[in-house]
Design goal:
Layout (H helix, E strand, L loop, with lengths): L1 E6 L17 E2 L2 E2 H12 L3 E6 L3 H15 L2 E6 L9 H5 L9 E5 L2 E3 L1 H9 L6 E6 L14 E5 L2 E6 L7 E9 L2 H11 L5 H9 L4 E5 L5 E3 L3 H13 L8 H18 L6 H20 L3 H27 L5 H30 L2 H27 L1 H4 L8 H13 L3 H24 L3 H6 L9
Parallel strand pairs: 1-4, 1-6, 4-5, 8-12
Antiparallel strand pairs: 2-3, 6-11, 7-13, 8-11, 9-10, 9-11
Helix pairs in contact: 1-4, 5-6, 8-10, 9-10, 9-11, 10-11, 10-14, 11-12, 11-15, 12-15, 14-15
């Protein structure tokens, strides 16, 4: 999939964030890099970025991105960029592309599944435009957005000043090379905008629509839309299988931290190591056997649990996700769980003595491991079932119970709770997974990775 990205404009409405809109930092990445990485995730493998305003710093960023990722990124300078008509930018790649291509704007954010579905459902139309039919979408700035009216899945009218409309232009296009001919005709008539060419083709019934339904997209064109888009992207960091503690307590804090970390050079793996280190300190405090260190250890264990969510959040925000990173984090989590529970076991054993506490501690650690080991297979097999539940027993709840038990000086309760509840839940999962619903099995195959 070849991808053309318009990045020639000045973006005057976003000047307070930066003098070049494509280079404006958005949660740790320039907008242009975020657009390219999202398109790559959707299947694009060759990029043609049309530059104009501040071309030198933009081309420098693109060159480094190409070197770092191995992506093929061509830059084409639009000498007509100052006239403000984006049709000239699209036309500047005419001699570079001879097949259908993806056309994007450098300041638009979107869910990569929109592009995948757009291309999979593309047809014989010259252009297919992804549109948002949510007329009351709070992300939309009505004064700036391009509006679309359509009939029988074909665009009839397009423009910013339409009084009646059925949806909004998301800036995501499937185009055939015939778009270049339409642009040339419109430019000769002093109509140099992309929407002019789209209207020209629409008048010939050659522009279809693709509805994005509830998928995310945002046009980052001013400080207000920047703020809204940032809020929406951060909100989408929540994971489907978060437990109740993770969803309502840990995530709001970890997302706030991740937002701050995203603008630094701190890597997800470094965050994982830091969270593990905090857990190790907590386990040492647990093992000291007195109440004050126990309280501090419980607080640090909870802090470690919160920070542990930041590595994945930062990885998703900055497109640094990797199979190794997920596995590395899971391994450190298992070590941290063992250390924390052993610290509590030693706390109890050193104060009260008795081999019974060692046995309880052993089953607490075993239950913790088995619950984590069964999580991935269970969650993938039982997605439909999980979605109907209000409470999911996992690591977030286990560590939160440690915090409560430490504050109340009830270490025995912590270990008994973890030993009983974690093992019972692991056994329950094995029973449920023995005879799964066949329809669920068809769509959610087993995976072998450990899920943290």
């Amino acid at each position: 999939m070849k991808c053309v990205i318009i990045a020639a404009g000045k973006g005057e409405r976003l000047q307070e964030k930066g003098t070049s809109k494509p280079l404006v930092n958005f949660l740790g990445l320039p907008l242009i890099e975020r657009t390219i990485r999202t398109a790559k995730k959707a299947g694009a493998n060759e990029f043609f970025v049309v530059t104009g305003h501040e071309k030198d710093p933009l081309e420098a960023i693109l060159k480094k991105l190409s070197e770092d990722t191995g992506l093929v990124i061509h830059t084409i300078y639009n000498s007509e960029w100052e006239n403000g008509a984006n049709g000239f930018s699209v036309l500047s790649v005419k001699d570079k592309i001879k097949e259908p291509f993806l056309l994007l704007m450098s300041d638009h954010l979107f869910d990569p599944s929109i592009v995948r579905n757009l291309f999979s459902q593309s047809n014989k139309s010259d252009v297919v435009l992804a549109i948002d039919t949510k007329i009351k979408n709070p992300m939309i700035a009505l004064d700036y957005v391009t509006k679309v009216k359509f009939d029988n899945n074909k665009i009839t009218k397009i423009g910013k000043n339409l009084k009646e409309y059925d949806g909004f232009d998301t800036g995501i296009f499937y185009c055939k090379p015939s778009i270049f001919k339409a642009l040339e005709i419109c430019i000769k008539k002093d109509m140099g905008f992309l929407t002019d060419a789209i209207q020209y083709l629409a008048d010939k019934s050659k522009v279809n629509i693709f509805k994005i339904d509830d998928k995310f997209w945002a046009d980052v064109n001013d400080p207000e839309s920047y703020r809204k888009a940032e809020s929406e992207v951060l909100k989408n960091l929540n994971k489907q299988h978060d437990g109740i503690i993770a969803r309502y307590f840990n995530r709001p804090i970890s997302i706030w931290i991740s937002k701050k970390i995203s603008v630094t050079n701190i890597t997800p793996n470094q965050i994982s190591i830091f969270a593990f280190s905090v857990a190790c300190i907590a386990s040492l405090l647990f093992s000291m056997g007195s109440y004050i260190p126990l309280i501090i250890g419980g607080i640090l264990a909870q802090i470690s649990s919160i920070i542990d969510g930041c590595d994945g959040e930062v990885a998703r925000l900055k497109y640094q996700e990797s199979s190794y990173g997920g596995w590395f984090d899971a391994v450190l989590d298992r070590y941290a769980d063992a250390f924390l529970l052993f610290g509590l076991t030693w706390h109890l054993y050193s104060n009260d003595g008795g081999n019974l506490y060692l046995i309880i501690g052993f089953f607490a650690i075993t239950g913790s491991f088995m619950l984590s080991y069964t999580a991935d297979k269970y969650d993938n097999l039982m997605k439909i079932y999980i979605n109907t539940r209000n409470i999911r027993i996992g690591r977030d709840m286990r560590i939160f119970v440690m915090l409560l038990g430490a504050l109340l000086n009830q270490v025995k309760f912590i270990l008994i709770f973890v030993a009983v509840v974690m093992n019972v839940e692991a056994i329950r999962r094995m029973i449920i997974c023995k005879n799964p619903n066949t329809e669920t099995l068809k769509h959610t195959p087993f995976k072998s990775e450990i899920n943290s």
